Amino acid sequence: MTRTINPADLQPNEFYRYMIGTIGPRPIAFASTIDAAGQVNLSPFSFFNIFGYNPPTLVFAPSINRHGHKKHTLLNVEEVGEVVINIVNYAMVEQMSLASAEFERGINEFEKAGFTAIPSERIRPPRVGESPASFECIVRQIIPTHEQSTGDFYPPGSGYLIVCEVVMAHLNDAIFNETGAIDPHRLDLIGRMGGDWYARAHGDALFEVARPKIGIGFDQIPEPIRTSSILTGNDLGKLGSFATLPTIDEISEFKASGVLDELIEEAQFGCQYLPDLLHFRAKQLLAENKVKEAWLTLLQTQ
Questions:
Q1: Please, are residues 30 and 86 in contact by the beta-carbon 8 Å criterion?
Q2: pLDDT in tens, 51-63
Q3: One domain, residues 26 and 149
Q4: pLDDT band at 27 (very low <50, low <70, confident <90, very high)
Q5: Of 205, 238, 268, which residue is a domain's last?
Q6: Number of Cα atoms under 13 Å in the Cβ half of residue 111
Q7: C-alpha distances in Å from residue 167, one per residue of 84, 122, 161, 170
């Protein structure tokens, strides 16, 4: 069963819970800003992502709070169009959460949450010393996502998209591996989920997927394999990315090598169905990224 929901049938905050519960994990922009009087603000936003790299562009979206007022970060960038986007990792998640409390404007969340304010090189707001990566940015556009409002009240849940150009980056040496690449295990990022939930990009949560190639495609997988009750969509995706199906000679040579003798014998003298045994073996091979061997195994019965 599938729930089909028209946003117009719900209150905005009700549909919001469905959105943040399913769209994630969302990276967090820990934004440090400054107002015209020089007062610093530090606040996290999970409506955030990279938007382009030439020029290097980041976007985040402070939403209007439940009282219908602009958030302090938005007020600050309207006065001083500069912001540091600090990246949040697991080691700082609780302090980041503390900084997200609705302190009065003018309260310095660096001090309240115990973060180290380090002067930026090209803009006025400071960066977070504990962050594994910080990006000094110039605000290029502030785009409202709602109709024009009057006075100081705005529709709660609406917001502004802030488009920023990165003019300087600060990357902690500890996040790089021996080859000079950023290591996701060392970075240990977190992402925002729905409710009070977060996700941690660490340990078994990290995995690699090979870059896509033009292969035979899902539609060219033989029907008995494509409809397998053993192979998953991920398994079939790997099979469909393979450039060409093995030749008849390759399939015969693979069988003659004896690598499948144990399975064939089990099917002949046991109670197992050979195609199922082959599909289970292929699934194991695919988990090891041995795609050609998986194909050679699966095609023994085709």
A1: yes
A2: 999 999 999 999 8
A3: yes
A4: very high
A5: 205
A6: 7
A7: 10, 7, 19, 11
